[in-house]
Write a structure and sequence with these properties.
Elements (H helix, E strand, L loop, with lengths): L9 H53 L6 E3 L10 E5 L2 E2 L6 E3 L27 E7 L4 H20 L2 E7 L11 H15 L4 H10 L8 H11 L5 H7 L3 H13 L7 E4 L2 E2 L7 H13 L1
Parallel strand pairs: 5-6
Antiparallel strand pairs: 1-4, 2-3, 2-6, 5-7, 7-8
Helix pairs in contact: 2-4, 3-4, 3-5, 3-7, 4-5, 5-6
Keywords: Membrane, Transmembrane, Transmembrane helix
Protein name: Thioredoxin
InterPro entries: Thioredoxin-like_fold (IPR012336), Thioredoxin-like_sf (IPR036249)
Length: 289
């Protein structure tokens, strides 16, 4: 005896068809979403790749091999410094070119700083301050903010000269070598217009909190400080990068391990103990007697 299975009713067939159609639409929508997601991910990946390539090119450009020898900027000397004699003037350039290969590498670096070629003002002459600084150094920025105006007052009064030895110590923490690029910009400004050097010193360390700058920004800042448009090519081309490398190597070989390092009349200061204005004022008074 067989059992006959009843055929689905029209209503049941209609409901089943609707259910299958709904499932097909859901599957199609899911496939469309997956396709859209893959397209977006592909575009995002392409954008990320382009950005990575651009960053790589920038880093490679900024990390390009620096020549061993090069020209010295106005006011430059054999120790890699730039001597400032007033708010608008620099000392005479004492050498025309420098070469890192000419430096004697010490068998052991001094445990404490022993800077070479220090100037000590004689009786009746301005007191000399030698300063090792890095444009990417927060303590240098703090020092400039605290004592920059006083330094300019001493310079204006003819009481001091300042030998700025701008180093690239902190390049290792910067993908764009901002320390060396900033030091190069300082040398470019000195060479272009000595009167713009001290305003640029104030500006570049005053910008520290806003972060590193591109060469175009450095050039814009330099021109605002008083340099001519010609400074742009000097900054972009890294004209004085060999001079900066020379200054940096000299400082390292002489045991200068950090920035800022201050030397007044040949004496290296301990900034944890020595009060900078007190030491300088005492030296100024001593030279006037």
């Amino acid at each position: 005896m067989s059992t006959n299975n009843p055929r689905p009713s029209k209503a049941e067939r209609t409901a089943s068809a609707r259910e299958k159609a709904s499932q097909m639409r859901a599957a199609q929508e899911a496939a469309a979403k997956r396709k859209s997601l893959f397209v977006k991910l592909g575009v995002l990946g392409a954008v990320i790749l382009v950005i990575a390539l651009v960053v790589t090119l920038i880093v490679q450009n900024n990390n390009a091999k620096v020549a061993d020898s090069g020209a010295v900027p106005a006011g430059g000397n054999a120790a890699g410094g730039i001597l400032v004699t007033s708010p608008t003037t620099l000392g005479e350039r004492t050498v025309e070119n420098v070469d890192v290969k000419s430096l004697e590498v010490p068998a052991q670096q001094p445990a404490t700083p022993e800077p070479r070629d220090l100037t000590v003002g004689k009786k009746g002459e301005p007191v000399n301050i030698t300063m090792y600084a890095d444009v990417n150094c927060v303590h240098c920025a703090d020092f400039e903010a605290t004592y920059g105006p006083q330094i300019n007052e001493w310079l204006a009064a003819g009481d001091i000269t300042v030998d700025y030895r701008n180093v690239g110590y902190l390049d290792g923490g910067s993908p764009t070598n901002f320390s060396s690029r900033g030091a190069n910009a300082l040398a470019c400004v000195a060479n272009d217009n000595p009167a713009a050097y001290m305003p640029f010193v104030t500006a570049i360390w005053g910008h520290y909190q806003q972060g590193e700058m591109k060469n175009a920004q450095l050039a814009e800042m330099a021109i605002a400080a008083g340099a001519s448009d010609k400074v742009t090519s000097c900054i972009e081309d890294g004209t004085f990068r060999p001079f900066v490398q020379y200054t940096t190597d000299v400082a390292k070989y002489d045991g200068v391990s950090g920035t800022p390092t201050l030397v007044v009349q040949g004496k290296v200061l301990d900034l944890a103990k020595d009060d900078f204005p007190t030491v300088v004022n005492a030296a100024i008074e001593a030279n006037k007697k």
